[in-house]
Amino acid sequence: MDNKLVPVTQPYLPPLDEFLPYLEQIWERKWVTNNGPFHEMLEAQLCEYLGVEHLSLFSNGTLALITALQAMKITGEVITTPFSFVATTHALHWNGITPVFADIDPDTMNIDPTKIEAAITPKTTAILPVHVYGNPCAVEEIERIADNYGLRVLYDAAHAFGVKRHGRSVLEFGDMSVLSFHGTKVFNTFEGGAIICRDAKTKRRIDHLKNFGFVDEVTVVGPGINGKMNEVQAAFGLLQLKHIDHILAERARINERYRLAFQNVKGLRMLDVPPYCTRNYSYVPLRIEREFPVSRDALYDEMRAQKIAARRYFYPLISEFPTYRGLPSASQANLPVATEISRQVLCLPIFPGLAMRTQDKIIDIVLAAAGLQQYAS
């Protein structure tokens, strides 16, 4: 293995000669943004691939989250998880909404439905769960709670591209779902994102909001934002979509090698996804539990010393950042499971192009920390 830092994930880059014809068409048309031909093609092809009817592309996932909350007219308090990337809660903050943190399930690491109900107050208007690591939330339980209390549900599905539950896309649950197409994601458009909604009328409203509120040249119907995806991003997405099955197969192969290597190591725990859920292997979260000979942070430091950029996703918890730690729901006493897991998880590198010898090196670092012999690939 060379001396280069190995990241947790990196984008799949198809051959340049496949991308150049797209760029040439953009150059010839001179239509670079504002719902260009590639933008419209990508929306249609993503709907077909993901099995959804209404999808609106965005320049990034955070603007998609902010706009989804605007489109749903959410106010007051929203119950969410502290175990996520901070953009989940920042989107609430930008909309003047108060996040209320609920603890997570110790097995799925998603928001625990049994904790949601206790967090509801007269100010609660919605639930914002996250399909963490692409592992679907307990959608039926969340739906039951939302129906009982008249709450809206917006899923942060940043990690859940292509994931299905009982053969149905997880993006179809709730009132809306939001995807991220950031360069670190399974499917990417450099930067990018999308909102999946339930009907054509809602999509029109979202499309107006992401374009400053314009309906036509002289009509603005609301205080929208500039969230449009440009043609270069959309073209790259179209090319990525041609390779997505290869990308997913490669990630599955890498994940399985990790699983086989660690399956009998005491104190290590990998994410188990129910057999009725498809996976996209967006991350490899390895939990370093108390029985393991060294701490998560000691293993993290050793990885870094050996040029492996393992990441502690998600540490610290969102609730521990200065912006949010003053909230009553942010106390560690309210979030014991999330607090413990945030100190256990170490995400290992997984991406198409990860060399087998590099993966063997990563595995050997973990096994050496456990006092075991090197991995036989």
TrEMBL record:
**Listed GO biological process terms:** polysaccharide biosynthetic process
As for family, the record states: Belongs to the DegT/DnrJ/EryC1 family.
The name under which this protein is listed is DegT/DnrJ/EryC1/StrS family aminotransferase
SUPFAM superfamilies under this entry? PLP-dependent transferases (SSF53383)
Keyword list, A-Z = Aminotransferase, Pyridoxal phosphate, Transferase
Lineage: superkingdom: Bacteria
Report the Pfam families cross-referenced here: DegT_DnrJ_EryC1 (PF01041)
Please give the residue positions where the record annotates the modification N6-(pyridoxal phosphate)lysine: 185
Which InterPro entries does the entry mention?
DegT/StrS_aminotransferase (IPR000653), PyrdxlP-dep_Trfase (IPR015424), PyrdxlP-dep_Trfase_major (IPR015421)
List all membrane-crossing ranges.
none
- Active-site residues, Swiss-Prot/TrEMBL: 185
Q: Name one GO molecular function term.
A: transaminase activity
